[in-house]
Amino acid sequence: MKIILYCVAVALAVVTAIGYVVGKGWEEEARVGQIQLSKSQLVALWSEQAKAGDPEAQYQLGRYYDRDRVDYLTAQKWYRVAATRGNHAGAQYKLGQLYLNGRGVENNLPNAMMWFRKAAEGGDARGQYFLGVSQRDGWERKPDFIEAYKWFLLANRDPELVLGEEARFDPQKALLELDAVMSEFDRAEAQKRADKWQPR
Q1: For residues 170 and 7, what is the distance between their CA atoms, to the nearest angstrom?
Q2: DSSP assignment of 33-89, as one string?
Q3: At how many degrees (to 10) do helices 89-101 and 55-63 cross?
Q4: Can you give the pLDDT at residue 143?
Q5: What is the DSSP string of the chain?
Q6: Are 174 and 126 in contact (CB under 8 A)?
Q7: Core-most of 116, 161, 186, 197, by most CB within 10 Å?
Q8: How far is CA 173 from CA 16, 153, 167, 170, in A?
Q9: Is 23 exposed, middle or buried (0-12, 13-18, 19+ CB in 10 A)?
């Protein structure tokens, strides 16, 4: 009996050792497969891909010029290409922000709203949040809390993306603020609209 237990213990030890060695091999392979690019290498890669018509690369170039270089004129150029030719919802949102704040373009609320609307309809949570703000605060017409609530509900599907832009952009907080002034019937209507909504 002792011999059988001893053999089982040795067999388990061998299997464990083999598993560890094989596992380490996979780990090392995965590490070798990862390529780390410097920022300048990334920019060169995005530039090449952007010129070939890749909307995501165009968007990333826009973000690079917007955030890292603070060159809003070049940023808006790349955002505009991605937004118009590639129909990139993130680029549409960023273009809306540039128009809203007058960075790289003339401050223009109607143009900002046009781009926020396109971004929101394309499924970008940040565009949906700003469409909600515009409906709540009456930027274009009188306030519409039901539509605002609908857009905040949709933005709340990806709150990290919205909060990642700025901590004060909080769709959950916006919903709570509207909860205090809206009837249950109005909130239910907004929920129905949000449930029916589909990105373009």
Answers
A1: 62
A2: H-----HHHHHHHHHHHHHTT-HHHHHHHHHIIIIIS--HHHHHHHHHHHHHTS--H
A3: 30
A4: 96
A5: -HHHHHHHHHHHHHHHHHHHHHHHHHHHHHHHH-----HHHHHHHHHHHHHTT-HHHHHHHHHIIIIIS--HHHHHHHHHHHHHTS--HHHHHHHHHHHHHTSSS---HHHHHHHHHHHHHTT-HHHHHHHHHHHHHTSSSS--HHHHHHHHHHHTTSHHHHHHH-TT--HHHHHHHHHTTS-HHHHHHHHHHHHH----
A6: no
A7: 116
A8: 51, 11, 11, 5
A9: exposed
Which amino acid belongs to residue 166? E
Vertex 15 angle, CA 12 and 16, to 5°: 85
Amino acid in the structure at residue 47: S
Mean pLDDT by 10 residues, the chain (200 residues): 63 55 48 68 92 94 93 95 94 96 94 96 96 95 96 95 90 95 96 94
CB 46 within 8 A of CB 69: no
Q: CB-based contacts of 57: which residues, under 8 Å, 6+ apart?
A: 45, 46, 47, 48, 49, 50
Is the distance from CB of 179 to CB of 153 less than 8 angstroms? no
